[in-house]
Amino acid sequence: MTAGSGIAARPRRGRDELYPFALLLLANLFWASNWVIGRGIHETFPPVALSFWRWTVAAMVLAPIALPRLKGQWPIVRAHWRVLLILGACGIAVPQCITYVGLNYTTAVNGSLLTAGSPIVMVLVSWLLERHTATPRQLFGLMLSLSGVGIVIAHGSLTTLQQFRFNPGDLVILLSIPIWCVYSVLLRRRPRDVDGIALLFLLTPIGLATLAPAFVYEEIFVRAPVWTPASAVTVVYVGVVASAGAYGLWNRGVELIGPNRAAFTNPFQPMFATSLAVLGLGERFYPYHAIGFAMIIAGWYLTSGLRLRPPL
Predict the structure, then answer these.
(1) Closest by alpha carbon to 303, among 145, 107, 180, 127?
(2) For the whole model, what pTM was predicted?
(3) pLDDT of residue 129
(4) Taking Cα atoms as reference points, which of 217, 253, 257 lies closest to residue 47?
(5) Looking at the domain assignment, is residue 17 inside a domain?
(6) What is the 3-state secondary structure (H, E, C) of 155-168?
(7) Is 305 exposed, middle or buried (0-12, 13-18, 19+ CB in 10 A)?
(8) What are the pLDDT digits (tens) for 201-221?
(9) Into how many domains does the chain fold?
(10) In which domain, by residue range, is 43 found?
């Protein structure tokens, strides 16, 4: 009985260890598609409008599920209003809007490359706010993953990497990274009695209120979005998949394993973006892709804290 229970329990523990990373990797996959979409729609849909309408869609999707779960929990919400305001501004409103602004001036590849470096900032922000530190194993794994990202971006050529240059759009996107890291670290201070879906719904009106002044200014003085069937489908996609879906997955993953370990999955975004281009756009898969992907996966394994167990 005991032996049988132990054998049965081992696969469950393995699945439990992998579960948070499955959530985080899926979130990164959704965000990788968002990089491509954000770049592709920038000529017809200005950045603040895209941010505003994606979260409007997300709020509409979340409301029927979240509102019943919030019954009787408003005193808890009021008690945590300060951290909720910070999370709404730093997670929902500002970083995504800044990212879309940057994509007006840079490519999705450049943007995803910058995001791959966010674990470095996350380690620093986590130490500043929570005094959490990364282990030498994690730092080595991070460097290995970033090297794999570099190989993919450089197409396996040192000359190409040496010729890589940052442009103003890249610098704008860089501004979003520490703000996003503050959001991820402060998720640990969220009200524990409010579940993940209800929490995300609570953050959406805060984010929309933060975006509202810039949204009105952009509509009046800059340019309004061009609504077409294609742009409407795009907004619905980023609202449902890259907003409600990806954020829900990310928030849950961070809750389970912490912001540092969660951030070490970010180098997968360039890997996923490249894979989407190969599968969806017919681009060729080269040997340097395989080398870079292997280094990203190996680096993530070192940072994850997982241990491979020999079969019994």
Answers:
(1) 145
(2) 0.81
(3) 87
(4) 217
(5) no
(6) CCCHHHHHCCCCCH
(7) middle
(8) 999 999 999 999 999 999 999
(9) 1
(10) 24-304
- Kindly state the tokens that stand for 127: 């130490």
CB-based burial label for 272 (10 Å; 0-12, 13-18, 19+): buried
Q: Which amino acid is at 141?
A: G
Q: How far apart are CA 54 and CA 49, in angstroms?
A: 8
Main-chain dihedrals φ then ψ at residue 273, nearest 5 degrees: -60, -40
Locus of tokens 């929309």: 208
Which residues, at least 6 apart from 111, have a Cβ–Cβ distance to it below 8 Å? 35, 38, 39, 99, 102, 103, 169, 170, 173
Which of 41-45, 88-92, 97-101 shows the highest mean pLDDT?
Answer: 88-92
The amino acid sitting at 74 is: W
Give the pair of three-digit tokens for residue 82: 């300060």
Asked if the structure places residue 3 within a domain, the reply is no
Contacts of 246 (CB under 8 A, 6+ apart): 26, 27, 30, 31, 34
Q: Is residue 15 part of a domain?
A: no
* Tokens matching residue 66: 């979240």
Structure token digits, residue 51: 């941010």
In a domain, 9, yes or no: no
CA distance 103 to 219: 19
pLDDT in tens, 232-241: 999 999 999 9
